[in-house]
Amino acid sequence: MTASLLLxxxxxxxxxxxVEAVMALKGLAYDCEDVSVMDMPGWYTEISPxxxxxxxxxxxxxxxxxxxxxxxxxxxxGYLEKQQPEPAVYPADPFDHGRALWLEEYADTGLAxxxxxxxxxxxxxxxxxxxxPDLETARKTWNEKLPPLWDYLEAYLDGRAHFVGDSITIADxxxxxxxxxxxMVAGIPDKSRWPALVAHYQAMKAHDCFQxxxxxxxxxxxxxxxxxxxxxx
Length: 233
Prior knowledge:
Order of helices and strands: EHEHEEHHHHHH
Oligomer: single chain
Strand order of the largest sheet: 2-1-3-4
Number of helices: 8
Largest sheet: 4 strands, mixed
Strand content: 5-15%
Distance between the termini: 50 Å
Structural class: alpha+beta
């Protein structure tokens, strides 16, 4: 049976991972259609003029063209929250709601730009293009640029299971999605230095809402990176 929600993108995208986790948490059925970020088709750039993935199509609104589509993971998650309010991933309390939005932005911008552009892409995109991975850039990112970002998150968690409140919010999902991105290539942060952050990530990765994306990524990465890279200094 065709689901009313169709997600365009790639399971390797941390932003698609975020949307998939929200849909799974809310029990929403969805289909996926792959879109190559290396060679984006014209029909997709009509939907996503900034050339970003993922985009969501609600087939109950329109089955083709830009109509019925939403681009940008945060916009999509906001739409899903309105469409299926329970379980909520955005806190009801105004201050907690703001904190969750901040941490989502911290992950989507700070972690994504640093870990994605500075580590994942220099390795994976190079391999896709049959080039040698840029391990020098990736190693500098792993050892110098990511640790201050992890320090902030470790302090923010302060030993708690969740970043905001007592249940999973968009903050937990967004942060875990970005750490998963670097984990696929280089592993997890040092547990002795960031114990709360690593425990949080491992719990999120094991949650049911991440399993479909985990499986899709594992199939792809097994062909590209059979063993993770050691980026220790």
